[in-house]
Amino acid sequence: MTPFPERDRLVVLSGCSGGGKSSILEELARRGYATVEEPGRRIVKAETDPASIRLPWNSLAGFSQAAIELALDDYQRALDTPGLVFFDRGLIDALLALQHATAQPPSDDFLNPRRYHRLVFLTPPWEQIYVADAERRHAFAEATREYERLVEGYPTLGYDVSILPRTDIATRADIVLERLAAATQE
After folding, report:
1. Where is the NadR/Ttd14 AAA domain positioned along the sequence (predicted)?
2. By residue range, what is the domain housing residue 81?
């Protein structure tokens, strides 16, 4: 495999909640790639106070701030990890959520030293596989609106969006790797 420049080793999978991101990351991990679990799910699992502003259904701004802090730590740790590192969401998702909650866009001064690979993979809404659970309490319609914000937001921050087709997990993982390889040769 062609070696990737430093920031091009850090790859984001984002998109619709319940669209299959975590399953794709599990497949990539099974193939030997480093992966980083979604910050939001980790926050919700760890939070013990049901009234906490770190929970998205109590305060999207508070939750987004907590996700930014965790994503910054993830980003720094990933820089020390050799090879490709795949993120289930990450800093940009958290910043876009904060922007949605507060109408404050992220600053270039904050973003520029913390770039990921320019190609970001998004899983589209897929109602047939969407499942609400303890960490994902919102309905499919809200997940779809979130997806639309991401499709619009990533390009405004200088990223190219690659939407993954609705197909089996192994094929989706293959597509991610093929598109990354092609983007490296451009």
Report:
1. 11-172
2. 6-184
